[in-house]
Structure formats: C-alpha cells, structure tokens
Design goal:
This protein has 531 residues and is α+β, with helices and mostly antiparallel strands. The chain has helices at residues 17-31, 34-42, 59-65, 86-99, 110-120, 124-138, 229-232, 278-297, 351-368, 386-392, 394-425, 447-459, 465-472, 478-491, 498-506, 517-530, and strands at 104-106, 140-146, 156-161, 165-170, 173-185, 190-198, 201-209, 216-218, 237-239, 248-252, 301-303, 310-311, 318-319, 343-345, 436-438. The strands form five sheets. Strands 4, 5, 6, 7, 8 and 9 form a six-stranded antiparallel sheet that branches. Strands 3-2-10 form a three-stranded antiparallel sheet. A hairpin with a 4-residue loop joins strand 5 and strand 6 (190-198). Helix 1 (17-31) runs antiparallel to helix 2 and helix 4 packs across helix 6 (124-138). This is Phage portal protein.
C-alpha cells in the first residue's frame, strides 16, 4: 500500500480518532504541562479563564468537562491550579525497573557477538530506557532501525512514540506502520513528513495541509529537515534489502487494552500505566491546589478602627501605617474604648488534613497503576536488605515481569533486524541472529547476603567453584572466570587423606597388606617364650 494520495484525507485517520484523543490525554499527564492539561480538559489554550457551555451540562459530557482541570473558573479570578508530577514519576520508575542496568545481549556466534557489542555501544541503552518510559505513559512504543552514512558508519536504533504512528495489523501482527512528524504549523498551514515502513521498503513523503487534513504532496525541498531525501531517495522509496521483514517493531507496555478491545485498528495496542487513574491524578492536583489556596487566603489581616487611619486628603482615602509605634489616644464616650482595639485575624491552614489526603491519594494512584508504594519512597523505616526490599516491592517486580514478556522478544527481534541491515547494507559479514536478552536485577544484593547464600550451597555440595565465581562476578567472561577458578585452586592447601592417616596410627591395615616387620619380631619372641 503506497503513501496517501487524497488531499482530503483526515489526519490522523478517523479510524484512530478515539485512540489519539486518549493518547493526547495521557501525554498531557506525562508532560505535566499546565497548558496541555487545560487544552485537553477545556479545549482551549489561553492564559485567561475560559468557560464553555459543556462545563455546565449534565451527563457524561459535563462530568468530563467539570473535572478539576476542566471546571469553570469564575470570571475575574486568576487561575492558580497546581500540578503534582506523579504521572511522570510513574513512567520514569517503570523504565528504571526495566533498564536500570543495560540488558545483556548474547549471540551464539562469536563474530556476531563482537559486531553486536559494537552496534549497541552507540547509545542503545539510553534508547531502551527512553522507550520504556514513554511506552509506560502512552501504552507502547516503536523502535526502528535507521542508517545514514553521513551521520554514522553503521545502523542504529531510534525511538518513535505511539502518538506519531499509524499502525496496520494482520492477524495481530504488525504488518506496516506510518510514522509522521509535523515540520511546520502556523495554525492554518501544516507541513507533515510521513515515513511508511513496509516489508522490504521505506516510503517517504512530505504533505502540505491543514490541522485536520493531510493535504497535497510536495517536494522534499519544501523543508530543510527533509531536504536530504532529495539525494538519498528522489522517488521517496528506500530499499531495506529485507523483503520479508519490517525495519520497525511495536512494543506494548502491557496487554490487553481495556478500552480498545472493540476497536479493530487499536485492539493490539498496549495499555498505559495511566489507564483508569486519570480521575485520581485530577483529584490529587485538586487537593494540593486546595492546600495552596488555604495558604494564600490565610494571610493575617488587621481590622483597624477608622480613628487609626491616616488621611491622604479629601477624595484620596486613608491608610494605616503598620510601622507606626505610637498612637495618641482620643476622647471617646464612656465604655466605648473597646471599639478602638486593633484586631488580628489569622485563618486556619488545614495542613494535616490536606497532607493526609494527598498521601492516601498518591498511594492509591501508584497501587492502581500496578506498583508498590515503596517504589516511590512512601515507606517509613530504616534501611533494609535486598531480600526485604524484594518482599516489600513484590507488586512492582510482578509488573516488571509482565512488561518483560513483551519487551524481551521484541528487543531480540529488532536487534536481529539491526544485524540484518548491517549485513546487507553495510557488508559486516556476520551471521544475523536473534540474541538472548537478559535483564539485570533491579535491586543489587548486598555482599553479605551473596556470601551467605554461596556458603550454604557449598555446604550442601550443590555448587561448583566455577559457578560460585560466576555468581559473585556476573559481568565476567568465561575466560576470566576460569582464570579465577585456577587461582583459587592454586591457593588452596594440598588435600590430606585424614582417614588413611588415622588408620595407620591405629595399626589398622587394609586387607592383604603385609604385617610390619616389628610385628613379626614380636610374634617370634612370643613363640620362644611358650616353648
């Protein structure tokens, strides 16, 4: 299927309109930008308050519009809403649980392994970490193989967010995908770059349209960011040399999606960590904004009698000098002196109530998103061991394992594609293969715990010296491990056969052994004594 040709085509496609509306909402929470949250829930992007009729309606439309970030702001009041960036913390924590340590990619062929190490050294770990973070927020992420001899002499991996992709599925398998980016947008005229990945080919096109329609196709020279395509792909097509393979993969965050199961174009998309907790994000922001409103409105006020005011002249009013220390008493009627007192008003700031409510809301959010509260520093107490950390954060590790079910095979697939492109287009000469992908431990065991475990295994005769060294140094290669094993054996004292030594001292000899000479002499002496 070629790139779109109709200038009236809606973009993004109408079949995915509900998907992009939800992705925009998740992106707003992930970014934490107040203008994005305002635009999503109020439909405007203005500095001044703006009320809409939908905010006063009943039913579902009015309920959505009247969320904290969509509720009407009274005329004449300043918008002073506060956002707590817990959503971005959730996405960041998810990525760190998966890629706090670089994944280990192991190929069976030594030459392939050597080339693989060279390819993934070019920032692959950072790419995986960023992909995991945006994937947690937006339900999934795309990884693609890119190459440009003017930039690097080898191919590498690049991330594409779900908000900039139009996937096509066949039997629940990604069949093709079109990535797009906005090059220019002045409000009326929008210039877009489309990059379509099909099996064996990548198609490029630049379109000039409107915010809602793709528009007509224009030359690559229409924008400097894509002018390099004039020389690289004058027809818009770039052969990948892989007729049976895409150069992109989609990695879902977790599956299944709870909200798109009845939408064929989106049924295979992943589920965001924010799915279902958006109202809780909204409530948390409302709680903190309420606390700040208490603080703002609880400024101390003075109620001052009119007699204490200093006149500024006819028509100019009067003021009270707070720095004045001496006031001259005036004659008043009897028992009227109480009316000349200065009264201090200090409203109550409900700190404890707000903090307690916000803490429970935050705990509910992270647990509903599938994490342990301890992963976000919500647990009190002293430092604990790695075993205790694993026990307390069990829910987070279960979620990590669920995400690895998708991350591991898709990572192996895109790495194999990377090796294929490297072999076909760059002549690396290696045999491409899907590597074994191993994720490191999220919590490092303390040395005492490791030593105690190895000691128990050794006492049970259930571990070899080679395996003990490998457990203690998982980052060592096999030759390094064997060298250390040889050192350990060389430093060990010679083995003494304690059993044989004790038998000899006791005078016990193995069957068939000759009697010692002195025993024979003693026997002959005994015979002579009997005679």
């Amino acid at each position: 299927m070629p790139l779109p040709t109709s200038p009236d085509m809606a973009w993004p496609p109408k079949s995915l309109a509900p998907v992009y509306a939800k992705l925009d909402e998740w992106t707003a929470w992930y970014s934490g930008e107040l203008t994005r949250l305002t635009r999503v829930y109020q439909g405007v992007d203005l500095a001044r308050p703006h009320n809409r009729p939908s905010q006063y309606r009943g039913g579902l439309v009015g309920w959505v519009a009247r969320r904290f970030w969509g509720e009407p702001t009274p005329e004449g009041e300043h918008r002073a809403k506060l956002h707590v960036p817990l959503a971005s913390d959730i996405a960041q924590t998810s990525a760190r649980l998966l890629f706090s340590e670089p994944p280990t990619l192991t190929a069976s062929n030594k030459e392939t392994q050597k080339r693989l190490d060279e390819l993934v050294d070019d920032g692959a770990h950072a790419t995986f970490l960023a992909a995991a973070e945006t994937g947690a927020a937006k339900g999934g992420v795309y990884l693609r193989v890119v190459w440009d001899n003017a930039v690097r002499p080898r191919p590498w991996l690049a991330r594409v967010d779900a908000t900039a992709a139009v996937p096509e599925w066949r039997w629940d398998v990604l069949w093709a995908v079109t990535f797009w980016q906005v090059l220019e947008n002045d409000g009326n005229r929008v210039l877009r770059h489309l990059e379509r990945h099909e099996r064996g080919v990548i198609l490029h096109g630049v379109y000039e349209g409107t915010p809602d329609h793709l528009g007509r196709r224009v030359d690559f020279g229409a924008h400097p960011d894509v002018s390099w395509l004039v020389d690289v792909a004058p027809t818009g097509a770039i052969s990948t040399g892989l007729p049976d393979r895409l150069t992109a993969v989609y990695i879902p965050n977790v599956t299944p999606s709870r909200i798109w199961t009845d939408l064929p174009a989106a049924a295979n998309l992943g589920r965001s960590d924010y799915d279902g907790v958006e109202p809780l994000f909204d409530a948390l922001d409302e709680t903190w904004t309420s606390l700040m409103r208490d603080l703002r409105l609880a400024r101390a006020r003075l109620v001052v009698p009119e007699e204490y005011l200093t006149s500024l002249g006819p028509g100019n009013g009067a003021y009270f000098n707070t720095a004045q220390e001496l006031f001259t008493p005036i004659k008043t009627m009897a028992d009227d002196s109480a009316g000349l007192n200065i009264e201090l008003i200090q409203p109550l700031i409900r700190v404890e109530e707000h903090l307690r409510m916000s803490a429970e809301q935050a705990r509910l959010i992270v647990e509903t998103a599938g994490y342990a509260a301890q992963s976000f520093g919500m647990a009190d107490g002293a430092a604990v061991t790695a075993t205790e950390v694993n026990a307390r954060e069990r829910e987070s590790f279960i979620g990590r394992d669920a995400k690895m079910l998708h991350m591991r095979p898709k990572t192996a697939e895109i790495i194999e594609t990377l090796l294929m492109v490297d072999a076909v287009l760059f002549g690396s000469g290696v045999t491409p293969e899907a590597p074994q992908v191993d994720f490191g431990d999220t919590v490092s065991q303390d040395p005492e715990s490791v030593a105690r475990t190895l000691q128990l295994l050794e006492a049970a005769a259930a571990i070899s010296t080679w395996m003990k060294v490998k457990t203690l140094h998982p980052d060592w290669s096999d030759p390094e491990i064997q060298e250390e094993v040889d050192r350990i054996k060389g430093d060990a004292p010679p083995v003494v056969d304690v059993g044989s030594s004790l038998d000899a001292l006791a005078g016990n000899n193995p069957p068939g052994a000759e009697e010692p000479e002195e025993d024979g002499v003693n026997a002959e002496a005994d015979d002579q004594a009997e005679e």
